[in-house]
Amino acid sequence: xxxDGKRVVVIGGSSGIGLETARLALSLGASVTIAGRSRDRxxxxxxxxxxxxxxxxxxxxxxxxGQSIQSLFSGESQVDHxxxxxxxxxxxxxxxxxxxFAGMRSILEVRLFGVAHVVRHTKPLMKNGSxx
Length: 132
Known about the structure:
By secondary structure, the protein is of the alpha/beta class. It has helices at 16-27, 39-48, 66-74, 91-94, 101-122, and strands at 7-11, 31-36, 56-60, 81-83. The mean pLDDT is 87.
């Protein structure tokens, strides 16, 4: 399978599964945007993805901020695939009986509302057959 000519956006692409997904998509010929909250981590991630600078874009974006996600996609004319491994799930925050409500809200902001923002802003950019 090749991804030549395809646009892939990986939110949470500066490390871990997101970075490896970006690396794989690039190796298959895609143009990739990696987004994350830290400019420094994005710069380090981009440095590890050598020889693909012409097909790699980095954008500082926060899943918990709808305006940030809108800005991420404002520069795109087409998106073929979106991958969102972004977001922390801290067990101590997820405990309904003893967890910190601010921590639970933070999880919901990213895992529920963040994904809703991504879907809202990418759907108009996706052609038939694309996967979000």
